Amino acid sequence: MRKTFFAIAAAVMIMTGCSQKPAQEHDCANKGAAAIENIMNRKSVRSFTGEAISEEDMTTMLKAAMAAPSGMNIQPWSFVVLTDASKFDDIFQGNFNVGTFKSAGTVVVMCADTTTQSRGSEERVPNSMWRDDLGASTENFLLAAEALGLGAVWTAGYPFMERIEHVKEALGLPAEVLPYCMIAVGHPDGENQPKDKFKADRIHYGKW
Asked: According to the 3-state scheme, what is the secondary structure of 136-184?
């Protein structure tokens, strides 16, 4: 059963705002609860049916990824969507996740431009915030997948250079662009349950 798409991200709810009128206030509370539920239900899925993802769902997930916060609004992300599983052995040569990729049938390579244009000139300079931005973008994508009733798993690219270099070459990425991570995404096969990761002893108020 597909989940209501209220819950792609709590940030969307905050940006659109909530009226103080009683009926709309109740609706806003429901959306907030759905957003929190979606976050808590997100899980890593590694087994898939192989059924193709609709173009509409993929667009929704990519829009969610691009709605992430970005330092100085640089938005260093780009995305390579791969759906031809017959090429995965070559593209992801030596990556132990290739079986998961084939099972999903779709892999999204989250790419990071590690540079940005210097203010007042055409020169490209290092962007020190690309890792943070891509992490936020990746999480948004995963939450959108969960909200759509799909399954997904985040597999590392960076900082494992042996993975990065081969994928970079296979996909023809520009010199300044790195494959930050690879997300296998598809229709989950079987029941997958989220992990309870809450640990009260990790929380400190006032000081450590």
From this structure: HHHHHHHHHHHHCCCEEEEEEECECHHHHHHHHHHHCCCCCEEEEEEEE
Task: Report the alpha-carbon distance of residue 181 to residue 118 in Å, rounded.
Answer: 26
Q: Kindly report, residue by residue over 101-122, the tens digit of the pLDDT.
A: 999 999 999 999 999 987 777 8
Token couple for 46: 């590694």
Give the integer Cα–Cα distance in Å for 23 and 205: 36
Among 93, 120, 111, 129, residue whose Cα is nearest residue 176: 111
Q: Do 7 and 142 contact (CB within 8 A), yes or no?
A: no
Q: Which residue in the block uniquely carries the two structure tokens 């193709």?
A: 52
Q: Specify the higher pLDDT residue, 30 or 204.
A: 204
Report d(CA 43, CA 193) in Å as an integer.
7
141 Cβ neighbours under 8 A, 6+ residues apart:
61, 62, 64, 65, 108, 110, 152, 183, 185
Would you give the DSSP letter of residue 179?
A: E
155 phi/psi in degrees, rounded to 5: -120, 140
Residue-wise pLDDT tens digits, 115-171: 998 777 788 899 999 999 999 999 999 999 999 999 999 999 999 988 899 999 999
Local structure of residue 153 (DSSP, 8 states): E
